[in-house]
Amino acid sequence: MNLVFASNNAHKLDEVRAIMPAHVRILSLHDIGFEQEIEENGTTLEENSAIKAEAVYQWINRQSSIRQSIDGVFADDTGLEIDALHGEPGVYTARWYSRDGKRIAVNGEREIFAANRAKALRELADKADRGAQFRTVITLIKLSAISSVRPASEIQVSGVVRGRIATEEYGVGGFGYDPIFIPEGYDKTFGELPASIKNGISHRARALQELVKLL
Questions:
Q1: What is the pLDDT of residue 147?
Q2: pLDDT above 60 for 130
Q3: Topology of the domain comprising 2-213
Q4: Could you give the CA distance from residue 4 to residue 213 in angstroms, rounded to a whole number?
């Protein structure tokens, strides 16, 4: 089975490929030659996940050279939801730092991640409640072997991992907010835990496990 994961994020691709069963081949957007920018203008994780999957699905349908070799496309959208901040940053998780209205010079993925983590630690500096959760929503669109107009099916699944925000950064593994998120049942952040453990308990892992049941 060939599935396109609507992302070129190397961290996400590594995680997804490590979790999916051996008979499922995961292709990135780069692998299929998709170079368009997708405007994620939804107001929920569910909407953004569907927007990305639909955009790639429509593009694949116009590519007769690859369409018959693709069984489906899926996209994820993930949000960090902090209890004391009423669920923020949520749908704005990826570039939360930029919503302060301040001009912050950041260059590249690593600096964006660092700016987001710094904002989270600032926002919780005087908060006793540091509870939080990561939530991932995945939209899967299966391609129909009969019609290029209508998909065979479209489904959404989700995965959640509860935890808390650390008081400072720990570990250099993972990506994004991983060095400040401590999952329930552990005393180390995702940035400290081995990938083998994170890939078994993460929000994305749990969503993917639900997805695999429906393939």
A1: 46
A2: yes
A3: Maf protein (3.90.950)
A4: 17
